[in-house]
Design brief:
By secondary structure, this protein is α/β, with parallel strands linked by helices. Helices cover 36% and strands 12% of the residues. Strands 5-4-3-6-7-8-11 form a 7-stranded parallel sheet, sandwiched between helices. The longest helix is centred in the last third of the chain and has 16 residues.
Length: 353
């Protein structure tokens, strides 16, 4: 986002800016992605980075100094991701490695899906006792088997992504590949697959940055918070987990979520404090959701008149409700809700105009 904003600034300003990235800490979650990025960026590290950072705080020749970890820098307030082309490119050798991998397992490179299901293992290893703040976002991979097989029956090869996962994805379908556990994965393929997939099915995690960077369609399932997806690439569709009143068991409407302060941000304790019980999507609901996404990408999905009416109403609410507008703390809401979600839960929009 920093690079996109810089590109946009230089299009419209006589005073051009050059970004220099300075890494005092060289740790990186994926070295293949780092290599792609720094082919396109001026980058300093080590003592030279330390010197540049020190000078940038003192000399007026440097226009500004910012930490890339500043969350506000990552917010796409003006929809640049949806209007600009990807800035990262694979080398000829990297493309050859990726294509050879797809050919080796007889994958049609024009028709495969990445499945990214968040579980508790990674954050348990990283954060230890703090994991319970985030467990509301986890899912069980076994509930995705039928959804993966439904996509496989539609002709897609499904790659289950991940580097550190709790359980294998067990399926006998030849086009369902548990890439996360079967010994195939490499850091380069983690990026190549996310960059070239037909679309991604994800519960929401850091890896989603890859299909986002390369403008691939994404469907978020079992997503929380409700309005977490703020990006809009080619297509972004969401089907949240189901939120229930913990006392009555009734499904909460969007108005309920706003009133309880959990529409935008929350953690596991916040949901409990708000009297909310969280239910994951059933296997059947996941099949319905991923089938809709495949049809949307293929251009064959047809909404019913009732679904069109609910989508129009929701779009109006998101653009006008005062508590759902962008602010310094919240990002623009761009993801479209799955029509199957609105059909199954028509009371979601009750009380709102």
């Amino acid at each position: 986002m920093v690079r996109l904003k810089n590109t946009e600034h230089n299009k419209n300003s006589k005073k051009k800016e050059i970004i220099v990235y300075c890494s005092e800490n060289w740790n990186c979650s994926n070295n293949a992605l780092r290599k792609l990025f720094f082919r396109r960026a001026l980058h300093l590290r080590g003592p030279l980075a330390w010197l540049a950072l020190s000078l940038s705080r003192k000399l007026r020749i440097f226009y500004s100094f910012s930490s890339i970890s500043n969350r506000s820098l990552s917010i796409d307030r003006f929809g640049l991701l949806g209007s600009d082309l990807p800035q990262l490119q694979f080398s000829p050798n990297e493309r050859k490695i990726g294509n050879n991998f797809l050919h080796s397992i007889r994958v049609n490179e024009l028709k495969f899906v990445c499945l990214n299901v968040r579980d508790s293992v990674y954050l348990t290893n990283i954060l230890g006792e703090h994991i319970h703040k985030h467990d509301y976002r986890d899912s069980e991979i076994r509930t995705y088997i039928l959804a993966a097989e439904a996509l496989a029956e539609m002709g897609y090869t499904v790659f289950r992504m991940g580097a550190n996962v709790k359980e294998p994805l067990v399926s006998n379908h030849p086009r369902v590949v548990d890439y996360a556990t079967n010994g195939m994965r490499t850091e380069l393929l983690d990026i190549f697959l996310g960059a070239h997939c037909t679309f991604t099915i994800s519960t929401g995690s850091g890896w989603d940055s890859v299909p986002t960077l390369f403008r691939r369609p994404i469907m978020f399932v079992n997503q929380l918070p409700v309005f977490a997806p703020s990006v809009a690439t080619l297509q972004t569709v969401t089907h949240t987990k189901i939120l229930l009143d913990s006392q009555t068991g009734s499904i909460l409407s969007l108005q309920n979520l706003i009133d309880r302060g959990i529409a935008h941000r929350a953690n596991s304790q916040a949901y409990k404090d708000a009297g909310v019980e969280i239910r994951d999507l059933s296997s059947e609901e996941l099949v319905e959701a991923v089938t809709e996404m495949a049809q949307r990408v293929e251009g064959t999905f047809v909404e019913t008149p009732e679904q069109k009416e609910m989508q129009a109403k929701l779009k109006h609410i998101l653009s006008t409700h005062p508590k759902l507008q962008p602010s310094p703390n919240y990002y623009p809401i761009r993801a479209q809700f799955a029509s199957c979600f609105l059909s199954r839960y028509p009371n979601f929009l009750d009380g709102l105009d």
